[in-house]
Amino acid sequence: MCGIVGYIGKKDAKEILIKGLKKLEYRGYDSAGIAFFKNQKVEMIKSVGKISKLEDKLQKGDFSNYNIGIAHTRWATHGKVTLENAHPHQVGEITLVHNGIIENIESLKNDLEKERATFYSQTDTEIVAYLLNKYLEPDFLKTIQKVTKLLKGSYALGIIVKSEDSTLYVVKKDSPVVIGLGEDENFFASDISAIHEYTNDFMFLDEEEIAKITKDSVEVYNKNLEMISKKVQTIQLEQESLGKQGFPHYMLKEIYEQPIVLEKTLNKYMDKFSELPDLTTYQEIHIVACGSAMYVGMIGKYLFEENASLKTIVTVASEYRYEKTIYNNETLVILVSQSGETADTIAALRKAKENGQTTLAIVNVKSSTIAKEADQVLFIEAGEEVAVATTKAYTLQVAMFALLSLKLAYDKKLIMDIDSYLKDFKEIPNLLKKVIEQEDDIKTLAIELAKSKDIFFIGRKIDYAICLEGSLKLKEISYIHSEAYQAGELKHGTISLIEKDTPVIAIITDREIAPKSISNVEEVESRGAKSIMITTEKLKELVDASLVVPSVCQFLQPLLVVPILQLLAYHVAVLKNCDIDKPRNLAKSVTVE
Ligand code: M6R
């Protein structure tokens, strides 16, 4: 999704802004641009494609004398990927960058067109620039107040006003923005990664707050234009990821990191097992998230229901935020998010809170909006995840559900021998390491799959939840069409898609249901499918499997299967020469709905 960064100080703005944009690259983008500001003049440079193209353009001019600027990476929403649509946008006195989506753009545009306004881009952002210019007042804070009242949707805006030589303005609603405080310089950005090289002191803007930033001061106002005092948070980021560390892609590096970060996360919570949240008072759990994080929730559902007898409903956040939700008095709403900035998940969290529900978030990024707003937060210790396709964060989130469901089962006295379970949890990082060592066998399988047009995943119960993630991983990075089905459901329609040699990957780890899944595999095989089965040591006599993982207790089995599917997706994508760390059309942090 779009990223914004701004600088005002004494240093070379170009260096700082380009570095900042590169740090925001992980969010996904298709064009980039910068506006430099000096002596009431604004110089804009934009390019379509990678930031290196913007750098090439910058090298052709002299942009080394600017100490103020705003910059942007664009992930197209309104309008195609073109130079005209790239940010910054400029109308009269106003130049701005924008992360978010203005939803009532059609009506605003219609009104402006009645006044014979003309637009050079197809973006919602240009309309905002137009309105700010139209309602320009000597006190620009009043202009912002007037215009933001007209806007529906989300925005983090970084604004230059030509007549105010030494000031930048920032305003936010439903899109994250942080201000970095320096000496004789200040910054703003979509997240701290873009500016933490220069400062550890940050101010996070809350909803509808406006910041007026000069090199020596930051004033923050609420929507009524009352100046407010903001807490400055000192945040030392963990040591930054040291690049790919010899791995050809971040995704592979992150897959290999899983045993280490799993150990770190499990140790952190197992050392204080009794302090994990007590869920015995809840009659129902709602797990709400998007994409892979929602598939983590599917695993969570089976773990809570099967092991701790607690009714659990999993809902995609983009639906949850709008659907009618029947809350029970004792409902816990669990939000799952790596980034903690996913717009729909934030909206779901706010809905739950507005309805008086208790919220618990499982999050990786500590400074994120979800981490700040949820009643309780369990942080996973994944460290920075760079590849767009999540791997280690997924695994750690699953581990958190395993721990929570174990704790609940113990608190409810459904299990007694807690020490033997905790011993299994302690052993899991090593077993995971052994699973990842099967990479060569997985590569061989990938060769068989890489030429496929469609690939199906089937499984029952928790194996189905595993399939959902395997299928998403495969399609998002290899661009092969793939679907996951409950094994018994295929014959109700989808089986008609099975042709000779269509690959069907069956996950069979649940002993009770294994014979049923095996029958489903036979059904597809007899229609020509090429089946690939993945099972556990204990079931290998029963299942003619291509890959076998160690058998562990029912809380932990998914942790040993999903990494196989991650590696499978990875190697298929390598064979297809795909852009693995930044798959087409995707963004790491989905900050618009
Ligand atoms: O940051 P979040 O965990 O909230 O992100 C949710 C999804 O956008 C994310 O899991 C997405 O599905 C990944 N690309 C999957 O690999």
Structure description:
The chain is an alpha/beta fold and 593 residues long. It folds into three domains: 3-237, Glutamine Phosphoribosylpyrophosphate, subunit 1, domain 1 (4-Layer Sandwich), CATH 3.60.20; 241-435, 3-Layer(aba) Sandwich (Rossmann fold), CATH 3.40.50; 438-580, 3-Layer(aba) Sandwich (Rossmann fold), CATH 3.40.50. It is 36% helix and 22% strand. It contains 16 helices and 25 strands. It has an eight-stranded antiparallel sheet with strand order 3-2-4-1-10-9-11-15, covered by helices on one side. A seven-stranded antiparallel sheet has the order 5-6-7-8-12-13-14. The protein has a five-stranded parallel sheet with strand order 17-16-18-19-20, with helices on both faces. Strand 2 (31-38) and strand 3 (41-48) form a beta hairpin. The termini are close together. 52% of the residues are buried. The protein binds 5-amino-5-deoxy-1-O-phosphono-D-mannitol. 5-amino-5-deoxy-1-O-phosphono-D-mannitol (M6R) binds at residues 290-293, 337-339, 342, 345, 388-390, 476, 586, 589-590.
Quick structural gist:
By secondary structure, the chain is α/β, with parallel strands linked by helices. Helix 6 packs parallel to helix 11, helix 12 packs parallel to helix 16 and helix 14 (462-478) packs parallel to helix 16.
Compile the SSE list and pairings.
Blueprint: E1 3-8, H1 13-24, E2 31-38, E3 41-48, H2 51-59, E4 68-74, E5 89-91, E6 94-99, H3 105-114, H4 124-134, H5 140-150, E7 155-161, E8 168-173, E9 178-181, E10 186-189, E11 201-204, E12 210-213, E13 218-221, E14 227-228, E15 233-234, H6 250-270, E16 284-289, H7 291-308, E17 311-316, H8 317-320, E18 331-337, H9 343-354, E19 358-363, H10 369-373, E20 376-379, H11 392-411, H12 418-436, H13 439-449, E21 454-459, H14 462-478, E22 481-486, E23 503-508, H15 514-525, E24 530-536, E25 547-549, H16 557-575
Parallel strand pairs: 16-17, 16-18, 18-19, 19-20, 21-22, 21-23, 23-24, 24-25
Antiparallel strand pairs: 1-4, 1-10, 2-3, 2-4, 5-6, 6-7, 7-8, 8-12, 9-10, 9-11, 11-15, 12-13, 13-14
Helix pairs in contact: 6-11, 6-12, 7-11, 7-14, 12-16, 13-16, 14-16
Bound molecules: 5-amino-5-deoxy-1-O-phosphono-D-mannitol (M6R).
5-amino-5-deoxy-1-O-phosphono-D-mannitol binds at residues 290-293, 337-339, 342, 345, 388-390, 476, 586, 589-590.
